[in-house]
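debug: dumping io for the single-chain case to check the tokenizer round-trip. Nothing else runs in this session.
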Amino acid sequence: MSKKIKRGIISFLILFTFLLSVILALIAYSKNEWNTIASCLAVITALLATYISLRIVWKQEDDLEPDIIVYFDLESKTGIIQFVIQNVGGSNAYDIKLDWKDELIDGRGNKIILPYVPVLIKNESIGYLGSICASDFGRLVPGISVQIVPLLGYR
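debug: decoded output
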């Protein structure tokens, strides 16, 4: 069962119990059962505290998971396009393998084969040479067109 489904079920149960306690408190109020009202308010307070603490724990769990982003770096090296895999998450990422719907092709027309990455430490990145010049970017990524604008006075 996935983490989202588990969290959804727990949230639903807390909400259901909260609503049940509110209904019970309203019924007790109509019958002037003050002990029951006090008990229901204690349960509601405990449910709210539980939900808030669960949200904090879930946020901390999410912050500690690896988070991989993949992008083309056009700025770090002039005239060279790099394919970068970066881990911006809170822990190491293991067994990274990328699959593409369409194969990537470099500036020479060769297929880019990305190696299997067994581990990528948090806040680290790996760059692969994608193309020699920016004019090849359209061949590197099908469907993207790049227009080269010359500098003033450059011919």
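debug: round-trip ok. DSSP finds three helices and five strands in the chain.
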